[in-house]
Amino acid sequence: MKASALSFKLAVLFVIAGMAMGIGMAAAQDHAIMPAHAHLNLLGWVSLFLFGIYYERRPALDTSRLARIQVWLWSAGTVVLTVSVAAIHLGYTAMDPVAALASLMVLAGMLLFGYFVFRPVASMAPTPSVGITPAE
Ligand code: HEM
User: Fold this and answer.
1) 83: exposed, middle or buried (C-beta count within 10 Å: 0-12, 13-18, 19+)?
2) Is the dihedral of CA 98, 45, 10, 120 positive or negative?
3) pLDDT confidence of residue 120
4) Given a cut of 90, is residue 123 above it in pLDDT?
5) Which pLDDT band, with edges at 50, 70 and 90, does 136 fall under?
6) Which of the two residues, 127 and 16, has the higher pLDDT score?
7) DSSP code for 136
8) What is the pTM of this model?
9) Of 37, 65, 50, which Cα lies nearest the Cα of 10?
10) Any idea where the domains of the chain sit in the sequence?
11) DSSP class of residue 63?
12) Using DSSP, how many helices (H) and how many strands (E) does the chain show?
């Protein structure tokens, strides 16, 4: 599967989980796990979807194994961070080291993405966008 397709599919799964969490918080009138909800939606939905758009515009990168590794690393970090942040805010402070590990996972995912963005490889340039011809 291409990295972009993987990003889009995982992003949709994350936002469904994030929305369910939000509805659960609202229904219970208990917003204790709000930071976990915010991280799940912003890392799992917004960021992952943006990665997908970037990959989709770069076909050579989109089919690379390294891009898929970036998506999986980011997604695994998001899951572990969400669960550990929720646990901490529910009083299980022993989960602190797990949250620290998860934060390093998402940092590594972002550093790998930064490597894609900054490396000077011509084949990784974006495909030209489709031109729009103005009506006469
Ligand atoms: C069914 C959809 C959703 C529901 C029911 C929901 C519900 C909630 C609730 C109840 C809070 C706590 C507010 C507070 O305690 O002040 C919250 C916070 C938050 N939500 Fe959602 N949410 C939903 C979707 C989303 C999505 C899609 C995103 C991001 C793309 C998002 C991002 C955030 C953020 C960043 C916060 C923290 C806001 C703050 O710091 O005050 N939420 N949400």
Assistant:
1) middle
2) negative
3) 79
4) no
5) low
6) 16
7) -
8) 0.89
9) 50
10) 3-119
11) T
12) 6, 0
Task: State residue 15's pLDDT score.
Answer: 98
Residue ranges around ligand 1 (CB below 6 Å)? 15, 18-19, 22-23, 25-26, 31, 34, 37-38, 41-42, 45-46
Distance 43 CA to ligand 1 centre (A): 13
Token couple for 85: 């942040």
Residue 36 token pair: 């976990």
Shortest-distance Cα residue to atom 6 of ligand 1: 22
| 7/108 Cα distance (integer angstroms) | 17
What single letter denotes the amino acid at residue 83?
Answer: V
pLDDT of residue 38: 98
pLDDT (tens digit per residue) in 20-78: 999 999 999 999 999 999 999 999 999 999 999 999 999 999 999 999 999 999 999 99
